[in-house]
Amino acid sequence: MLHLKFNKDKSKQELNAIEKKFKQYSKEKITPEFNVLSLNRTDIYAHVLRIFVQANVHSTLKVSVSQLLDFLIDVAEKYTEAPYHTFYHAADIVTMLYYLCHDLNANKYLTHLDITFLMVAALCHDMGHPGYNNAFQKSNKTDLAVRYGDESILESYSVDLTVELIKKHKLDKKHKEMNDILTDLILSTDMAYHPKLQQESHQLFNTWSQLTATTHTFPSEDRLSLSRILLHTADISNTARPWSISKQWSDLIVKEIYNQGDEEKKLKLTLSAGMDRDVCSQKSITLKFAEMIKPFFESLVSLLPKSHVLVDSLASNRIQWECLELTKKRKMRRASSDIIIQPITFKRIRLGFRSQSYPTVLYHHQSTSKKMLPASFPVQKSHHLLPLEFKSSFIYGTSANSSLESIVLYHPYDQ
């Protein structure tokens, strides 16, 4: 039975639901296919709680499962309702971090304490993120920029919120170094450190490749370096996830990016690169980011050979974006050609490459009459025909005397 000290507003029914889901999720395997965006609030608490328990976070910190849940709920409350940087993002990073450690074998290099600090850092790393990045904070001279200076503004804010909750829940009572390690890990999630982390990955490989096969312990600084690399990997992994999940995260990221661009225009600030919805498409934003992080993922394969699946997903998702773009272009080119049905001439909207053997046909919504159409034209709907709805006024003009009904324009799919 779960009992909370701080979040007493959670009803017995809610806690029972979390506990039930916790037991259910504990039987399921954690993979990159797990989609946290499909979960409700109760489910997300249960999912994160089961990962923390399976990673022995509660045992390492000497707290109960109830105390751990109390902490998770407090963390969730510190996240904002930004499109992307929400508690769901944090839960997704925790999920991928567990996968990296337990399925891709990163845990063989780390201690239980290392993994515990990693999980807590992943959960807390974007607390308080308002949906506008460090550059926006700096250029707009926000309160956060005034408070934290020019570097890692949002990450520094997340660190302060993390330390505050760690002290509130007394999670550091057995590990006095906890706050220092969490500070290091959370600050490393600033994308400004991306090149440095890629370099650290190469350095670790060069160091560890010289170790003997019997080496089972690694220096603390090397383990901390690997922890930074793993946290960063999980944090930018949405582009390397299965397509259906990757696309959902891309939708949210781009929404947040466009929101910032809109706000910068409104405030007459210098527009940040890649944030103008009138210039930058979702595809271009996503693929540019994927291209930037690709070398980082490739370097990770040297440390964790099984992580090649992430590189494969990057390549696969690029193909999916290209196919999506091609599909959009084809749809645009499937508009009608010039059609003449006596006594009315219909304007060509856009030329498409369609089979000449299938002329475009106009059907009236309210009539099945063939009087206006040549006898050779089919009038029944077919799964080979693509409907495009138009109001008659759009084609015939806006004359109030027109007696024509709304129509549907059909043409066959491209073969």
Give a verbal description of the structure.
The protein has 415 residues and is mostly helical. It has two domains: 12-327, Catalytic domain of cyclic nucleotide phosphodiesterase 4b2b, CATH 1.10.1300.10; 339-412, no CATH class. It is built from 16 helices and five strands. It has helices spanning 12-25, 41-54, 57-61, 65-78, 87-102, 112-124, 134-139, 143-148, 153-168, 178-187, 194-208, 220-235, 243-266, 282-303, 308-332, 392-396; strands at residues 339-341, 344-346, 361-364, 385-390, 407-412. The strands form two sheets. It has a three-stranded antiparallel beta sheet with strand order 3-5-4. A hairpin with a 2-residue loop joins strand 1 (339-341) and strand 2 (344-346). Helix 11 (194-208) runs parallel beside helix 14 (282-303). Mean pLDDT is 84; it is low at 335-415. This is PDEase domain-containing protein. Keywords: Hydrolase, Metal-binding. Pfam families: PDEase_I. InterPro entries: HD/PDEase_dom, PDEase, PDEase_catalytic_dom, PDEase_catalytic_dom_sf, PDEase_CS. Residues 1-328 form the PDEase domain.
